[in-house]
Amino acid sequence: GTVYQAQNKLTKEVVAVKKMKKKYMNIEEAVCLREIKSLRKLNHPNVIKLREVLRQQTGELYMVFDYVKWTILDLIKDRYRRQKVLGLPEAQVRDIMRQCFAGMSYVHQTGIIHRDLKPENLLWSEDNQLKIADFGLSKQHDRHQQQHTIYVSTRWYRAPEIILKTDQYDPKVDIFALGCIMAELYTG
User: Fold this and answer.
1) Mean pLDDT of the chain
2) What's the CA angle centered on 1, arms 32 and 120, to 5 degrees?
3) Where are the alpha helices (DSSP H) in the chain?
4) How confident is the model at residue 155 (pLDDT cuts 50, 70, 90)?
5) How far from each other are the two terminal CA atoms of the chain, in whole angstroms?
6) Using CA atoms, how far apart are residues 21 and 4, in angstroms rounded to an integer?
7) CA-to-CA distance for 78 and 54, rounded, in angstroms?
8) CA distance linking residue 43 with residue 49, whole number of Å
9) Mean pLDDT across the stretch 147-174?
10) DSSP labels for 69-118?
11) What CA–CA distances, in Å, run from 124 to 62, 88, 90, 108?
């Protein structure tokens, strides 16, 4: 989908609205989307909050989220653009990663694998709060049935088991992606 910045006409609060590409015949069909199912289960300070789901008469589906101004990728690019320095300061990397691991620990405890962690899906607020976003490839994980789709995650953050095309993987694929992100934060 495509994400837009919007403002609630009544409260004047700024929100993010994700318009889905596909049209849905009814709200029940839309609620079955993995992203919506996953986000409805999650309530953590380091996970983006889904506020509501709206469906137009035309079948267009919109998801309303808290608005967060930047991504972690924006931070990396902005520092390089302003200071010509690759990577972020160590204290900032530690803070970002602490929040990433806290959020992903919670997500994994609820039985969900994100499967698409990358700097673009980690949002960073003006008050230095990290929010994990974009649960479009997420999946409920069952320890007993571990077969999963093999084409997931962005190439540069794929765990070896996914690269080797096994359908037997678990939440550790997210931890691998976080390791890649941490290296990128340090090196730019």
Assistant:
1) 88
2) 110
3) 27-31, 34-41, 72-83, 90-109, 160-163, 172-187
4) confident
5) 27
6) 13
7) 34
8) 7
9) 70
10) -EEHHHHHHHHHHHH---S--HHHHHHHHHHHHHHHHHHHHTTEE-----
11) 22, 14, 16, 21
What is the helix, strand, coil percentage profile of the chain, to 5? 40, 25, 40
Active site residues: 116
Token couple for 140:
């409920």
Burial letters for 101-114: b for 16+ Cβ neighbours within 10 Å, e otherwise? ebbbebbbeeebbb
Burial of 146-179, coded b for 16+ CB within 10 Å and e otherwise, reads eebeeebbbeebbbebbeeeeeebbbebbbbbbe
Extract the tokens encoding 66: 């808290």
| pTM: predicted TM-score of the whole model, two decimal places | 0.88
Contact 107, 114 (CB under 8 A): yes
